[in-house]
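Most newcomers find our protein records easier to grasp once they have seen one. Sequence and backbone structure share a record, each on its own labelled line. Nothing more is needed to start thinking about how sequence determines fold. As an example, a complete record with its sequence and its structure tokens follows.
=====
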Amino acid sequence: MHFETVFRHVTIVDGTGAEAYLADLAVKDGRIAAIGDLAGSEAAQIIDGQHLALSPGFIDVHTHDDTNVIRFPDCQPKISQGVTTVIVGNCGISASPAILAGDPPDPMNLLGKQQDFKYPTFAAYADAVRQAQPAVNVAALVGHTTLRNNVMDDLYRAASKQEISAMKAQLKQAMADGALGLSSGLAYASAKQAPTEEVMALAEELAAFGGIYTTHMRTEFEQILDAMDEAFRTGQHAKVPVVISHLKCAGAGNWGRTVEVLERMESAAQRQDVACDCYPYSASSSTLDLNQVTDEFDIFITWSEKHPQYAGTMLKDIASDMGLPLMEAAKALQPAGAVYHCMDEADVERVLKYRLTMVGSDGLPNDPHPHPRLWGAFPRVLGYYSRERKLFSLEQAVHKMTGMSAKRFGLQDRGVIAQGAHADLVLFNPNTIKDAASFENPIAAAEGIELVMVNGQISYRQGRVSPQRHGRFLTRQQS
């Protein structure tokens, strides 16, 4: 048999959580063609993987790369850390279906400027991704806030019956065109006035398509259990799986409460299909939200439209420089972006280790001084949390970033190493893999990633993105 590529002597970590094993692996026509002892086989290229691990490509289930996969199709922050598939449209904000009449409302501004929202239908967005052919595969959710912005003249109120009907029609069409499901961002002012019933009504469109509901809950602070109950009720009402985005206990007064939060997850899991994602850091990042301004923890400003000179400075230092109280300084910076050092490390570890937790970076690619998770999330799980902290085995770590995620989001024949599966693969050194991005120097490629293959083609090798890109637009339940 003649193969395109054969990896020899690799330690295969197959994405299912099963124990790693030594074998050779062959790739042909974009798929895994054979696994075993392939010593005598012919191949256009043979890659010696001695002392290296071969795993499925990592699936970043929580991204805001919606417009970036088109504008910057090299996707360097992602492919350099072994990510081969990104799921966009999280937190209620998506690039489609949308055309903006003015500046994008907060937090849609995380995805780009007005001119970047030019996809009136989900199908138009999918076509644009296919034309750009990014380095990674792309699958997309539809954002609740994006739908609201399409049909409402004022986001700071509940939608009317007619507006809900219009949103439902747009969501139904997007689902028919291959969207994964609906996301919400109920913590943001632009969706906070949406009652639970509004979201439930939209979620009703999902079940017929086998869709999913993901949510940046109404709060991650003191009332977190109530917010979780709301998310679970929405899923039960619509008869669809629920994913809680970036599960955390935010705010110093909330530290340690992941014990009860995970108990609530576990009890919900007994009666319905639920899961969560988590990024491996104790600091969050978003737009500068006045509801989160506090002196209980450090807040680092990443950008400000009115005062760009303060990017890269702590809010408390800016307030002192301006001679203003913290809240007034925050108001003066708006619109702006921030990193909030709002979590306890023990809580992060507890959530990351939890059996229903997938890994998502939640990276913000348009931030001039991004949170290091944009470039470092996946190697950090493997290097820091698995190898150093021994939070879980290498096999378990890889499962949380591949097989579990593919199954949860209905990405067929991806996320596992098995004969016939798509050849999205990462060759890495399990002894040296680590995140290089830091809060001080956030733009840095990970160490220990030798090679990344997307759809059977080498797309990243020895620190360089290949000039040919091989990513695809993935629709729900379609390989």
Remarks:
- The radius of gyration is 22 Å.
